[in-house]
């Protein structure tokens, strides 16, 4: 019975309601309530609402399809197991992004410990561990479309140190505000700003080096 | 007014390193008022910093413009397959989480079920015990005939026992009546009434353990 009602809810109310300038997605609020009560269909709807965002986050943070998929699955598994702990006072997107980002950071740290990938010879120069990793694993067709510029930008992001990478990815690829990034990463906005500044400088140097600027 | 002029006068003294941090604040949309003036004045005179700003703006634009890679079609299915609820319903998940509680719950359900079975209204007369061969059974009545001596115990369920003779053993009554035509002394081992369901369970359980004792 519940399954059916949630499906109807989605088809009838798939619109955002504007309340005092703040976007309140009532559909999402209802879906989350149902999912909290263990409704299967509602959880599956929640997956459909957020899977792309988490996949893109994983893809940019980790640089390959397989790990992006893994991280998306792990994120939703965690969401499923701890949705009863989610406090509806806060934005759901902040909560799920926190889970996803933390999982990505954990992987990056493990990777670093396992291979010492960051042991670059000269500042940004030469071959380092990241070059060995399969970062571009799109089909040949897609690779034709990807321009040299995009390849450079991807690589520059891939090489960003982990603490700058998370803020840069959330800021520029997910278009989140500095405040939201602070909420996701549990750090003051001033720290987020410092990291955005340093990350931006790092990227600039890399892109300048690739004659893109 | 004076203050502002003074600040603007000091603009030239802002070095390029300081301007770099102003550039980032500007890109974050945080720069207003005097600081914004300072920056704009510096950029008018310093081509290096101006070039820096252009480069940073391009960096932002290039990073933002990075296309999102296509999401695999079967991602939803893969996610849902990894969720444990697909491998069982809520009760099963709960049971896996708290096995002891689940076992207790199963026990309670079975016991409750057996209670209903016990309390069936159309229960039949059951007579058992070692003194069986001396009694006469008529409808739901168990009669110990006059002059007859029962050398053993009797258990009567859902009926009535009429003792005209003598019973040397015990008489146990389960939801049954006893009719002693003379005195109670005719039952040497005493009479036990079991009417309540809980007593019944206890009786059954102790009987179960008695089986082991005998063996």
UniProtKB/TrEMBL annotation, chain B:
Q: What residue stretch is flagged as signal peptide?
A: none
Putative zinc-finger domain residues: 16-49
Q: Keywords in UniProt for this one?
A: Membrane, Transmembrane, Transmembrane helix
Q: Which Pfam families match?
A: zf-HC2 (PF13490)
Q: Where are the transmembrane segments?
A: 98-118
Record has Metal-binding as a keyword: no
Query: Which family is it part of?
Result: Belongs to the zinc-associated anti-sigma factor (ZAS) superfamily. Anti-sigma-W factor family.
Q: What is this protein called?
A: Anti-sigma-W factor RsiW
The organism encoding this protein is: Chengkuizengella marina
Q: What is the lineage of its organism?
A: Bacteria, Bacillati, Bacillota, Bacilli, Bacillales
């Amino acid at each position: 019975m519940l399954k059916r009602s949630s499906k109807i809810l989605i088809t009838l109310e798939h619109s955002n309601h504007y309340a005092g300038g703040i976007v309140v997605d009532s559909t999402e609020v209802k879906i989350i309530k149902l999912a909290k009560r263990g409704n299967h269909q509602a959880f599956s709807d929640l997956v459909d609402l957020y899977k792309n965002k988490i996949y893109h986050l994983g893809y940019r943070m980790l640089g390959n399809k397989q790990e992006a998929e893994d991280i998306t699955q792990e994120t939703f598994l965690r969401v499923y197991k701890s949705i009863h702990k989610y406090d509806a006072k806060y934005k759901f997107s902040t909560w799920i992004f926190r889970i996803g980002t933390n999982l990505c950071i954990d992987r990056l740290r493990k990777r670093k410990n396992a291979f010492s990938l960051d042991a670059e010879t000269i500042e940004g120069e030469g071959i380092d561990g990241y070059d060995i990793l399969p970062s571009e694993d799109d089909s040949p067709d897609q690779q034709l479309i990807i321009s040299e510029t995009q390849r450079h930008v991807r690589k520059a992001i891939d090489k960003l140190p982990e603490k700058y990478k998370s803020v840069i990815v959330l800021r520029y690829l997910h278009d989140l505000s500095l405040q939201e990034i602070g909420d996701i990463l549990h750090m003051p906005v001033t720290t987020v700003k410092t990291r955005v500044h340093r990350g931006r400088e790092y990227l600039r140097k890399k892109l300048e080096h690739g004659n893109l600027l | 007014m004076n203050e502002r002029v003074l600040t603007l006068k000091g603009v030239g003294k802002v070095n390029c390193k300081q301007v770099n941090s102003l550039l980032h604040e500007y890109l974050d949309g945080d720069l207003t008022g005097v600081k914004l003036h300072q920056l704009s004045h510096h950029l008018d005179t310093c081509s290096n910093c101006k070039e820096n700003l252009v480069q940073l703006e391009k960096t932002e634009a290039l990073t933002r413009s990075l296309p999102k890679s296509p999401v695999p079609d079967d991602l939803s299915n893969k996610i849902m397959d990894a969720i444990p609820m697909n491998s069982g319903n809520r009760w099963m998940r709960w049971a896996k989480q708290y096995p002891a509680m689940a076992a207790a719950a199963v026990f309670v359900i079975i016991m409750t079920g057996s209670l209903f079975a016990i309390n069936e209204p159309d229960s039949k007369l059951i007579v058992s015990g070692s003194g069986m061969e001396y009694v006469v059974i008529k409808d739901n009545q168990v009669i110990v005939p006059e002059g007859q001596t029962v050398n053993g115990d009797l258990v009567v369920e859902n009926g009535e026992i009429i003792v005209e003779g003598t019973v040397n053993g015990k008489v146990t009554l389960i939801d049954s009546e006893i009719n002693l035509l003379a005195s109670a002394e005719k039952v040497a081992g005493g009479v036990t009434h079991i009417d309540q369901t809980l007593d019944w369970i206890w009786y059954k359980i102790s009987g179960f353990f008695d089986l082991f004792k005998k063996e």
